[in-house]
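Per reviewer request, we include the raw input and output of the structure prediction for the construct analysed in the revised manuscript.
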Amino acid sequence: MEFLLSSLVLMPLAGALCIGVSPRRRPGLIKSMGLFFAVCQLGLALLLYIDFDPGISGMQFVERYAWIASMGLYFHLGVDGISLFLVLLTIVLTLLVMLADWPGVEAHLKEYTCAVLALSSALVAAFVALDLLLFYICCEASVLLISFLIGIGGRRRRIYASLHTALYSFAMGLPFLVALLYLADYHRQINGQFHFGVLQLYELTLPLEAQLWPLLAFFFYFAARLALFPLHTWLSTAQVAAPLPLTILLAGVALKVGGYGLLRFCLPLFPEAFYNWSAHIAALATVGIIYGALLAMVQDDLQKVVACASTSQMALVVLGIAALNLQGLQGSLIYMINHGVATAALLLIAGGLYRRFQTQELVRFGGLSQSMPLTAAFFLVALLAFVGLPGLGGFAGVLAILLGSYERFAAHAVMAVLAVILMAWRGADIFQHSMWGEKKATATDMGWRELGPVVSLLLISLWFGFYPGTLLQRTEGAVEQVLVRVGAEVQSEFVEGE
């Protein structure tokens, strides 16, 4: 287990390298190799889950190798309860993407397979990186790979969407880069050496004035990655233009980097400033929750509905984090995980509909349950999981977020409940008109190759819905450690409140 995390990061890169030197004229071999390395990565991930000790709140499986030691740069990896399930989510969804059909990329299958494996490596590395500069490099690499995948296999306005996604991330990343350089220099002033190590930077005690502008740079970078209003515009552009399998990694995993960054970096590094700004952050999140829900109500394209609803749901994650209590933070984390599972199932079904009808405009669907009963049944369950119905995985996260946020921001929590109800109503409306309404089209039902990934994801959602302790037990210790780092001033308020 000494090199488990580095193996998780390097396994898909090794696969990309092997595929890169394989002959282009053998697409079957390319797909098989991509699937093989994705399965190998999943096997390593299962070892990680089995050997992970939920009783330890700190980092486990830590690896540290000198990169540029004179500048405080190390290839430093570690995993705790915050990052464990995000790593597993990334790897599971990568495997599903490898299993899915990729219409429209046949001419670039080799490049596409290599880029998907490299994207998996970058996302896993971002979730386990314990060096801020390494984290930044992995985040930007993941955006560049997403832009590349949109460019070579995307649909309408793919070049515009590709450039827009890359440039938007680069622009938001510049202030973040300046802020992390500032932190490294502050470490040099105190300890005599530049250092980008997360655990080392946790030990810094920055005065409140020195926390404010770095917090803003960090927060807006992660808010953009989360597609939080008003930094959300890139998501709908990318989601609609991206190849259907890529949308699974985009909405299912890439968005979660923003929420992870808020938990891992913003709270522990800038506790006082975050506490002082938490009311403003909660207000912004509430606006995002309502705005995203209203946008989802008026969209007529299934991909756009998912993108707008995801904007609202990621704003709900920010509201839970702004609550600064155990329920809110832990609810945000498990909600991100379950959102990734439910979104992937929904997008797999949406992809099947697109392959059959070459459209995702909801007005073109109607009465599909008559010719596609299995699709209708699983589409209903996926929609219910997506909106957080009790008994499915998303409900535990939504409930914890609302209870946690109600302790500090009661009015915001009430408005969030209304937005959640709106999205549930929209989900029911979509199902009624596409599956039960007037018959407008017919098609063959889902086959075993499509059913397998969807059923697997929905079973995971059911498991998390009935046994949320699977998530709670392994995340509680790490989340409590974040709250401890927030500081005595914040903690004292919650003690008095209790």
